[in-house]
Specification:
Largest sheet: 9 strands, mixed
Number of strands: 9
Shape: globular
Radius of gyration: 23 Å
Oligomer: single chain
Structural class: alpha/beta
Order of helices and strands: HHHHHEHHEEEHEHEHEHHEHEH
Length: 378
């Protein structure tokens, strides 16, 4: 009887071992990359560039031909979002909860908190125990009647006087990046973290029954909170530099914000933005194709606008084997032209990096290390 039990245990252990090896291979980045390449819809998805796209001259799409035109198109882009008023440089937050992490306690009802709309109150356990974290403030912005989204301001105990704005994209919240936020705080950076409209605390409305219909499609809802955050950061904390990182649709928001607001020194869109002519069918969402924005400046023009200026620059990172979008090496088709245009118009830098270390839609450790190294260069 004991021999039978021994054999059964041995078989179970063998099966468990094979299952563990299979699971490891299934989720191991190297095997997943090979699987993605094998199962790609076409040869141009990950490894090759469609020759039809290579025939399109990026310069033929751009409107900016000289440095003075950068300011003009920046004004046109701002007018497309705020009409005649331009960027709201004087606006400040309407409410600030200082040390939110110590005042709010536990999540009021974690069982009813949807994962994709997780509020700061329900994500606080992720940030407890972070070294060098002095506190987290929740900051509210009035964008439209009834719509007052908030962002989180992570304040370091020992700071370097510099701020990083992080903007998250669809299907998640900035809490998914809590380890990257922790690393920034550990290096002395303050962080202001934003969610895309409709996620996390951007769903907050004032007054019962009030909402802002169409806010996801309205570009003002995406950019005004960031402008107000920069106003607040400079007025109340006088940070020496402001850099911005964005993932996915947050990368799109980062690219446009850096084009709009030269107070953003360096910008890092990750897996988030390509010129319209290089996009696949499902690689966009409103308001990324808003004709008012694109009439004011093409995305190629925005890249130049975001990179131009003393100390300024933009580093775009794409995941070559991304499970979601913007996969492959397509961005290389405009890298040289944009880099040369930026150099011709004055100080500034532009660069594209294709991340081949993983097959996911994320900011990898490799990408994050590149970003930090670039932020810390003169």
């Amino acid at each position: 009887m004991f021999r039978v039990l021994d054999r059964v245990v041995a078989v179970i252990a063998l099966i468990a071992g094979f299952a563990g090896i299979g699971t490891f291979l299934l989720y191991w980045d190297h095997t997943r990359i090979d699987f993605k390449r094998w199962s790609a819809d076409d040869v141009y998805q990950y490894d090759r560039i469609d020759p039809r796209l290579a025939k399109i001259d990026p310069l033929s799409i751009m409107q900016i031909r000289s440095e003075p035109e950068i300011g003009r198109h920046r004004a046109l882009l701002a007018a497309a979002i705020w009409e005649r008023h331009g960027l709201p440089f004087r606006e400040q937050p309407i409410r600030i909860i200082k040390d939110f992490d110590r005042k709010m306690g536990e999540c009021p009802d974690p069982d009813k908190e949807p994962v994709l709309r997780r509020s700061l109150a329900c994500a606080l356990p992720l940030y407890r125990g972070i070294e060098n974290l002095a506190g987290i403030d929740q900051v509210f912005v009035a964008v439209h009647e009834g719509h007052s989204p908030s962002f989180a301001h992570f304040r370091p105990k020992e700071g370097n006087g510099r701020l990083v704005i992080y903007h998250h994209g669809f299907a998640g919240t900035y809490h998914d990046q809590h380890r990257h936020i922790e690393r920034l705080i550990g290096r002395g950076y303050a962080v202001m973290a934003f969610n895309l409209v409709g996620y996390g605390d951007t769903t907050v409305v004032q007054g019962e029954g009030k909402s802002w219909k169409g806010s996801v499609e309205n570009p003002q809802a995406h950019f005004e909170p960031v402008v107000v955050a920069i106003n607040y950061a400079l007025e109340s904390f006088r940070y020496k530099t402001i850099d911005m990182i964005g993932l996915s649709a947050g990368g799109w928001a980062t690219a446009v914000m850096a084009a709009l607001d030269p107070r953003i020194r360096r910008s890092y869109p990750v897996a988030g933005v390509l010129p319209v002519y290089l996009r696949r069918e499902r690689e966009t969402a409103p308001p990324q194709l808003d004709p008012k924005l694109l009439d004011a400046a093409s995305y190629l023009d925005m890249f130049v606008m975001a990179s131009n200026g003393p100390g300024r620059g933009q580093l775009q990172i794409f995941n070559r084997y991304d499970r979601c979008c913007f996969a492959g090496p397509r961005a290389r088709l405009y890298q040289r032209e944009i880099s040369e245009a930026v150099a011709a118009f004055g100080p500034g830098r532009f660069q594209v990096v294709i991340d081949e270390t993983h097959p996911r839609h994320k900011i990898s450790r490799f990408a994050f290390d590149l970003i930090v190294a670039d932020m810390e260069r003169p």
